[in-house]
Amino acid sequence: MCTLEKRGNLFLLTLTGDNEHRFNPDTIATIISLLGQAKSQANRGSVLITTAHGKFFSNGFDLAWAQSSGSLTGAAERLHQMVESFKPVVAALLDLPMPTIAALNGHAAAAGLMLALSHDYIYMRRDRGVLYMSEVDIGLSMPDYFAAMVRCKIGTSAARREVLLSGKKIRGEEAVGFGIVDSAAHDSAEGVVEATVGLAEKLSAKKWKGDVYASIRKSLYPELCEILGLKATVFATPKL
Questions:
Q1: In the chain, what are the domains?
Q2: pLDDT, tens digit, 9 for 90 and up, residues 8-33
Q3: Does the record carry Isomerase as a key word (predicted)?
């Protein structure tokens, strides 16, 4: 389902297996638990990289699990459950006291793209993988924190229109042009992870105080943090 590996100051969170890495209550609970472990073990210089195995980074919520309830009402209730239970994942990443990097090995769709956008940096492959918000195509409205995430992480109205209103599947170079991802110059999953490890090592060398870093991050996204129930802590002990 997912694993957390610690390599010195680097935490590597990996969605495991070769499937679509869809989020259901069990998967979500595991991710929250592993992010809690990373937070508890964090020190100056810690950095988190999140990646996955196989063709997909994540294809979003487990709609098959929702539909297996046997009724439309049950499916809607299960979908709402996943939307609400995924919110703490986003909150945990925004509150994590270290820089975070998403290494997209493949497709990132719907909640999978939200997971990626919850990180400070995003790298994706040049040869494979798309970013895709499927809600307009499958007839689902946007959760409030999804919409807030898009508003604060995707900088132009044109880019937001392409992502949300056209259902466009956005490949690497275009995603860089839209300012959604930081790099798409990598020809394999291994190449993406290697590049993000290089970035992580540079960030780790800064030895920033994690709680200050998290506070500054939260101050950048006040609307999203308000929806998530997060508050930026004010620190008055500058390094002079």
A1: 2-228 (3.90.226.10)
A2: 999 999 999 878 999 999 999 999 99
A3: yes
